[in-house]
Amino acid sequence: MPDTTQAPPDLTAWTCPAPLRDQPKVVMGHGGGGVMSAELVQNIFAPAFGGRVLSQLGDSAALSLGGIRLAFSTDSFVVRPLFFPGGSIGDLAVNGTVNDLAMSGARAAFLSCGFILEEGVEMEVVARVSHALGAAARAADVEVVTGDTKVVEAGHGDGVYLNTAGIGLIPDGVDIRPQRVVPGDVVIVSGAIGVHGVAIMSVREGLEFGVEIVSDCAALGGLVATMLDVTPDLHALRDPTRGGLAAALNEIAVAARVGVEIREKAVPVPPEVDGACTMLGLDPLYVANEGKLVAFVPRQHADAVLAAMRAHPLGAGSTVIGECVRSHPGMVVARTGLGGTRVVDLPIGEQLPRIC
Amino acid sequence: MKYIEEFQNPQLAQRLLDDIHATVTRPWALMEVCGGQTHSIIRHGIDQLLPEHVELIHGPGCPVCVTPLEVIDKALEIASRPEVVFCSFGDMLRVPGTGRDLFRVKSEGGDVRVVYSPLDALRIAQQNPERQVVFFGIGFETTAPPNAMTVYQARRLGIRNFSLLVSHVRVPPAIEALMLSPDCRVQGFLAAGHVCSVMGTDEYPELAERFAVPIVVTGFEPLDILEGVRRTVRQLERGEHRVENAYPRAVRPEGNPAAKAMLEDVFEVTDRAWRGIGVIPDSGWRLSERYREYDAEHRFTVGGITTEEPAACRSGEVLQGLLKPHECEAFGTLCTPRNPLGATMVSNEGACAAYYLYRRLGGATAPKETSPVA
């Protein structure tokens, strides 16, 4: 036992523990889409690969090849469970890459698909995943044209891991990238946020919230095409997956060196997501989405783009949540319901449920 | 959400704020005890709406921060053992021990699992009879009853491969220790509502009387906090120091008798070290003699631990309101949210991090106005 002398405690010596940042091994937070993920890219991947295109660090790379402008992206999927309300790893594998391309304004044309299968996984599961993947590809109007299969020993995987890569054409006159965002741009989200993350958590953790929460997993190529029909002059698009809306807004604020201001009450959070997050001690702004986008639109086009989004089935819940400002560049600030403000910071690693 | 939304009503909040502004005639320093209240204050920007003269000092009610280094190191040691499944609430995983944390133990092969309830850990023990399942029982009077109940259940069901690593702490001795500190600036307390929903309010009149401080039992939603502040400053302005219950929808004077009986059965009061502060007499709980076999410290011989605290910062003074964050030499240079020296710089609700972010916004305190959005 520690020393228990009765001297009054020295409160001036109070120190609180700070999280460790320099992990010598990979920890889960490196995959969380926050500061730790970004540091992994900045410190190891980007220096190792170099390259001008990579330095854009967008959801997808915008390439020029033989005079043709292409978007190219890849994504890996390690979700557990493989099947969840509203989708499966197969749906995610298609929609994740299709959406990454759509955030450059590109309509996905071709996908590759790599399967990493764990020894012992039921063949029926592989078939169901493949079937879901094929159906999702047809729905997104994209063709799987090449693939690969590897098997790892039992215990070295989680049943099925998938990787997809995709390419698509970027239409003429379209130049969508974070650096184009300027003060005055209007920030629009395409619907309710936090749904996918809470749907996954509810099945993964065996939590029941009284109502089934169904993932919003969807391919957004069509919605983006609708928006581009209004104007090719969209400044930036993001699909707020890992790290949620907060991470997406912060990435844009930093890349464009603008401030982002949102009205917290304007952010569409469904009651069941709000309730689940309150119970779990999570912030819906940091919870993953798989069928939503956030758009940075020049003010003069905002009303028309919003109307077009609302007319699309995947954008019916679209709403303006804020705007870009000159002050506090690189920062996201939320105006709270009471009229106060708070800084919406980039998450560090994974969001952890709070104790209190 | 029903019964939450109502307590965030902006019009009612404004009425409480108007009342507070009309009441306050001079500077007052209040402490909200619980980390959950701090979270709500920052989350809703409540501190910026209060009169300039009303200062909220964030109290020691963050169980993550106060769990002593020695216990964290024991947790890391136990979690590293091959036969152990180590279960914990999520945010304990990032708390550093001497040179490493539970995330790292996990990355090195330890079976560390996040659970939402200690009963989940008990279920894991039932499902894995060949493994030793340990739950990290930390926190205040709020998390203690379910942990006590889990140990009670383990014994009742004869589940022998479950144990609890206990580092529970109690609020009233911490308030006493704060008030005994010669530099203490706190003039009134917003007591932690959920702690009182378990323990009742019997422990507080003696403290209010002895230290001549108002203690107002306060909830967690914006209206709750504003009402707590309103009642505390009203007492201060009138020169009163009573215990008031501003959270009657959750707190009865006698608390929760069933939970208290469970605590009485399973735990016994003990001296407890608080990280960064030292030992506060009678400020914690440990498993009582009857349940000693479920004590992880008893079950696993965890010896030879040499603790080493990371480089100190001055967050102790900040936490007491003796030092403004930007007056610290390390502020904004050695110590930033990306490279924090202390927990006050770690999360958005930490005093230093809030200062850091708002100073980047262009002022020493939080902004009162921002431009309207579309």
UniProtKB/TrEMBL annotation, chain A:
Q: Fetch the Gene3D superfamilies from UniProt.
A: PurM-like C-terminal domain, PurM-like, N-terminal domain
| Top-rank lineage group of the source organism | Bacteria
Protein's UniProt name: Hydrogenase expression/formation protein HypE
Q: Where are the transmembrane segments?
A: none
Q: Which residues form the PurM-like N-terminal domain?
A: 59-170
Give the CDD domains listed for this entry.
HypE
Q: Which InterPro entries match?
A: HypE, PurM-like_C_dom, PurM-like_C_sf, PurM-like_N, PurM-like_N_sf
User: Pfam families, per this entry?
Assistant: AIRS, AIRS_C
Record's family? Belongs to the HypE family.
Source organism per entry reads Streptantibioticus ferralitis
Question: What region holds the PurM-like C-terminal domain?
Answer: 183-327
TrEMBL record, chain B:
Matching entries from Pfam families are given as: HypD
Provide the alphabetized UniProt keywords: Iron, Metal-binding
Highest taxon of the lineage: Bacteria
Q: What InterPro entries does the database record attribute to this sequence?
A: Hyd_form_HypD, HypD_1, HypD_2_sf
Q: Which family would the database say this protein is a member of?
A: Belongs to the HypD family.
What's the protein name? Answer: Hydrogenase formation protein HypD
Q: What is the lineage of its organism?
A: Bacteria, Bacillati, Actinomycetota, Actinomycetes, Kitasatosporales
